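TICKET #2291
ISSUE: user wants both folds in one file
ATTACHMENT 1:
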Amino acid sequence: MILNDAVRIVNRAQEAGITVRLLGATAVRLQAAAHADLFYRLNRLGAREKTFTDIDLAAYSKQRANLRKLLEKELGYKVDQYSILMHGNDRMILHHPEGKYSIDVFYDKLQYSHEVHFGSSPKDGRLSYDPVTISPTDLFLEKAQIHEISEKDIKDLVTLLAACQLSHEEGRGHINRTHIGNVLAKDWGFWYDACSNLDKVVHFAQRYRDEGKLDAELLQTILARISDLRRTIDETPRSKNWEKRSKDGTSKKWWNDVEERHR
């Protein structure tokens, strides 16, 4: 039900001229539709849940008022006033009319351990690359930015890398290696956590193969894509800020503390 509601919200917003895209687990599930069996073989939703627990959305701040009106007045979701006080204009949380789940809206960027930017306007933002979700590129960055990554997020990266080819383009089925390289070349902390998480993906993917949850051919595809992506990351020229920050390494905190609600 939640997945259907999530797509319905995106489509209804589009009809109203509002750009909204899914992120998080629902977006991974939709981007990896051809590998839905893997999503469930990896037990991504847990033995008890069997379904998604909430909806995460990315939107543009310039359309904030119209989106709130649509969600609150037309669709009946209830705005969490505490979230407005805590996050101001960056984020808004709403609850299902019957309390079945919550909606988390991120405006212009995702802010957790590191920042993933979408832009602030439909004219030049990144939310146009797919009609329903944020781009696979930004989905990768969303998961790779997590400092203390959980196994569920590693499963999302495994599934995403199984479903999407590396490319220099944006769009469904494409992870833009060039954009990722450029983002990480500007931020040493983001680079460090992303590369560490890729190492963890390799470890867990091999374990899933040993457990019979991932076939050998698909494992090789995932490992090849990680190797290709790492090559691009390594070859992308680093910014002066990256070079300066790299001198301190892990002796200095390199991530942002986040409110642990859900990822």
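ATTACHMENT 2:
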Amino acid sequence: MIKQCLISALALGGLQTALADTIQLKDKASLDGKVLSEKRDQVAIDIGYTVLVVPRSQILKISKTTGAEAATRFTAPPPITPPETENVPVTASRPGFYAAPHQPLPLRSVRDLVKQVGEAVVQVRTPGGLGSGFIINEDGFLMTNFHVIEGETQISVEVYLQKNGELDRKVYKQVRIIAINKFEDLALLKIEDKDTSKFKYVVMGSADSLSVGERVFAVGSPLGLERTVTEGILSTKTRQLGGELYLQTTAQINPGNSGGPLFNMGGEVIGVTNMKITFGEGLGFAIPVESVKFFLDHRDSFAYSNDNPSTPYHYLEPPSRARHDNAIIE
């Protein structure tokens, strides 16, 4: 039904050129109108005579125009093309809080990619345990799982820097919680130690553009074994667990991997590893990067406050009992 609506709307799309926003679809057609709302799985656009709800899976890009300037946000990159050279910088990106490729990065070997992304993958330690994380911009902002830092305020981050062909471990202890989403198991942290240099960071890819069976690899600190690399394939993109959809992979995931990145073969983050089936092998799971982008794009809504650690979720206990004189009424 959505497909038919889009086809009929495209036939009249040329009449709406005076409107500001443009949605370019994967079939090379476009919709001109006013984008009313953007959700993780769909976009609503007013094209003048009706409002259409377009699935994200059919959108190539969204262009918004304010005056003479247009800001474009990619939601589904075109298919990955074979590399012409191996010397392609992994940080090819667009301006913004986090980096995303202007175009899909060329496929490379795990050996080559680990050398480039290794410094951006970190170990996150708390008094209660440890996990993994990855730096998303040069200012020291990094992603991890909420359950890695849940109930903790003393957080340290270990970064492994390459100097003269050797790894130099550096520990940062001034780490602040910026935003949390308990329900998506995501947390945004920031390294605030003084006299820090610019950090190496990863780029965000697209899990939507992947196909089941494609090769992926994870980097993290399983059981405290830092910089461990595991490789596998994408088993499924829509594994439902606890009401959420996860990426399932055969790449080995163990305690300590939580919060670390799952990469495609272009070196782009396509998920955040967060759990495994304990009584099975090759059954690891990751939060799709689209959820991470949504969290980062709306991080102010998930802001964490040291004065109110319950921010942004603060619920009162439900009244399960009512007291009347000396009696308890259930």
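RESOLUTION: both attachments delivered.
EXTRA DETAIL ON ATTACHMENT 2: Residues 178 and 228 are 27 Å apart (CA to CA).
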